[in-house]
Amino acid sequence: MYETFLTFLAQQERDDAIEWFTKESPAQARNWLDEFDRLLDRLENNPFQYAEHLLFIRRAKLHKFPYHVFYAVDEINYSVEIIGIQHTSRDPNIIRRRINFE
């Protein structure tokens, strides 16, 4: 089983999403966080279930929510590094810049 962890920026993006949903509907915020936690559980059990999106970066979509989770798998240390959580309407180049692909 793999261990998941979030980078500082991914933590901020998660917190920003929860804050936004909480303002709109606390129940939706809870649903979003539950779905995010389920995704982390799936990644811990099988991080290779989602295709590579940018070389070594994989992209998973949150069910029921328009968000992508970008992550890298470290097969040596059995870890999954969440590098970004992004609404699907945002500029996809944000992730490329974050990992210096531009």
UniProtKB/TrEMBL annotation:
InterPro entries: RelE/ParE_toxin, RelE/ParE_toxin_dom_sf. Keywords: Toxin-antitoxin system. It holds the Pfam family ParE_toxin. This is Plasmid stabilization protein. It comes from Spirosoma montaniterrae. The lineage of its organism: Bacteria, Pseudomonadati, Bacteroidota, Cytophagia, Cytophagales.
